[in-house]
Amino acid sequence: MNFTYGEYIKLIDLLKEKNYHFCSYLDCDRYNKSVIFRHDIDTSLDKALDIARLEHKNNISSTFFVLLSTDFYNIFSKKSNDIIKDIISLGHQIGLHFDEKSYPINNVKDLEYYIKKEISVLECAVGKKIQVVSMHRPSKWILENDVQFDGIINSYSKKYFSDFKYLSDSRMHWREDVIGIIKSELYNKLHILTHPFWYSEKEETMGEKLTKFIDRAKVERYYNLKDNIRDLNDVINEGDIV
User: Count H helices, E strands: the chain?
Assistant: First the structure.
């Protein structure tokens, strides 16, 4: 499938047509035929909000995983915090996207300690209880072990890869035919990961998407400076930036 909003809506419509119930990690066991929609927010909260609004308009909810250890957004900035709360207000769940490489982790106890530490920070920022974690670029150790945490659902635990058919669009590439698999109805349980960053109104290459993101960052940086430096236009001509 193409990485456009139009194709994304077709994916949702196909799942509805095949009678999949859109559920969260908390209630997926209630339904015989269900799909967990999961979104990792690696780079852009704005793109995540676009998907959240699209899904809300199409009467479904999903789980968005927020990354604390990123240079691309700050969950405590007003803009970023407002976006996350907007996503919640649209009926979606928020989870923690956790990068194990950010800490000196040697065992499950260490891993759980730092996950709970970040969850506490995220709960403080958004005012909601966080009950699910997904791993950012998980290590072989995470992928090969059924790691369990006290009171926290690990989206990389064995259940979500054995009881569910797992499908992912990582690096703008579906490793399996997601449309064909849904149409086949061979699996009653689906666990689908998408990255909002890759989707747009029209079809674009990965290079085009990344270039736009970099260009947009320059403009955002300019306006952030303008909010903090009086008479910035006397120093830098706005027309040369925007």
Answer: 9, 8
Domain count, the chain: 2
For the entire predicted model, the pTM comes to: 0.94
Closest CA to 87 of 121, 112, 53: 53
pLDDT digits (tens, 9 = 90+) for 84-143: 999 999 999 999 999 999 999 999 999 999 999 999 999 999 999 999 999 999 999 999
The angle formed by the CA atoms of residues 29, 63 and 52, to the nearest 5 degrees, is 135
Q: Judge if 182 and 222 occupy the same domain.
A: no
Is pLDDT of 240 > 80? no
Degrees to nearest 5, angle at CA 26 with 20 and 32: 35
State the chain's maximal CA–CA distance in angstroms: 64
